[in-house]
Amino acid sequence: MTVVRIRLRGDFCISSPTGDALTPRGKKAMGLLAMLASSDNHTRSRRWLEDKLWSDRGSEQARGSLRTTLVDIRKNLGEFAEILGSDRTSVWLEQDRIETDIDNTESTREFLEGLVIPDPEFNDWLMQQRMMLRRSGANRSDAQLPGRVTIQCGEPWNQSSVGNAKQQIVNDQVGKIISEFIAASRRTITETNADLVIRTSIEEEDGGAAILVQVIDPLMDEIVHSDHCFAEDLNNFLRSQEVLGRFCWNVADLTLEKLPGLRRDQSPLAMRSGHVQKALRKVLTFDPVEMQSSLSVLDIANDEMDAGLYLALKAWAMTSMIMEGFLVEDAATLEEISALLTRAEELAPGDAMMAAVSANVQAILFERHDSAVNLARRALRENPNNLFALQAMSVGRIAQGQLDQAYELSRQSKFISALSKFEAMCNLHHSLLCISLQRTEEAVASSKLAAERSPAYRAPRRQLIGLHAAQNRAADSLKQVNELKTIETNFSIERYLFDQSYPSNTLRKSGYLDRARQSLVGRK
């Protein structure tokens, strides 16, 4: 069988079996072929390629650019065009029809030497690829994944004393939250070359206690993030899951936001934290384009690191898109989400955050409440302040008729998330629970806060329309209608009130829409 040769070390080049040049002229066409040729199975998802080569374009434009580039490549390959395959989701090179030099560890030439593509996502990938090849001396399939991240929580055990227990409680809680969002991490209090060090100082006086937490990058000798608070009663502060949880969650959340900036030649710490934080930020904008883009980010993360957390987060992102009305809830989509959760469990059966995120999807999308409760319980045993697990457990308890416990769990997640990027999400969840429990004023307050914190968030405005109308506050309801129309251009009151497919199920099931119709029917 004839084999097409692809040179990746030095100047990119494709040649036929007889030596004729088949190299495309376009830089992005070269980059696309190089990314396929250097991948483990010569296959990449369309979303992954679009994100790497056209990250500055909208999803429709990126898809069109990819299609055009594939056509151009096939034209250039001529009679060898069949080596490039594609379908609705993936693009690949036929493995038995190509040969590359990526295994040639004796070559002194740089990987894709001189190839310049003005896209930061491509350049990040190129830098990572070159670093892995330098470290391994082998091809990508043999290169090791980014190493496990070590987080040192407090003083080394052989230097600690009983008096340090209070500091260690804070160190441990912050470390738990950070480690849960970094796939493949571990916490330690031994003397080690840690990637991250957490230090808490507590000074007690008659009037209370001052608590200072510093998260330190030991390699660069820099403080990544620090925060402090004052407690009138230190023991009560440490005993309170909510108060301690809120403080530690915000320390951890702001630290996680800053970790991707610790480049260090693409250290495991920066790589393993970067994808998750980027995806979370995109989902929690509740903007349709950004939410769609988050799926590509998580595909990339899984391609590069193959961790169950990324798959569970993708399932959660898709669920969030369904709830917002950005993704059709059909059989194929539900099957894809279910498969993501199954594979996530296979890859990371002991991962607490994976279990929490999976529980969230199981409870909210599939209404598998027993499964959700079991997964959430597993996560909460590790960290009683895990927001995803608290929400899932809350939904599960409602289904089981334990309404008081459901309310307390939701209120806890709302309190802990205050000031973090999860605040809008947790307030919306609490609003929906309060609607189910007929706590109208509390539902209004939480929906307002969610809408304020995230201007593109449609769900809280949908709740406020129905809640205000049910309270006979037609003017306030119509104000929310006008605000919603600015971000949901096809919105209509008729569809909101009468279309069973419109995403307002909680209002519908709780009777609020029936009451709202009396003041909204006939309005525009």
UniProtKB/TrEMBL annotation:
Lineage: Bacteria, Pseudomonadati, Pseudomonadota, Alphaproteobacteria, Rhodobacterales
Domain of life: Bacteria
Coiled coil location: none
Family matches, as Gene3D superfamilies: Tetratricopeptide repeat domain, Winged helix-like DNA-binding domain superfamily/Winged helix DNA-binding domain
Protein name per its UniProtKB record: Transcriptional regulator
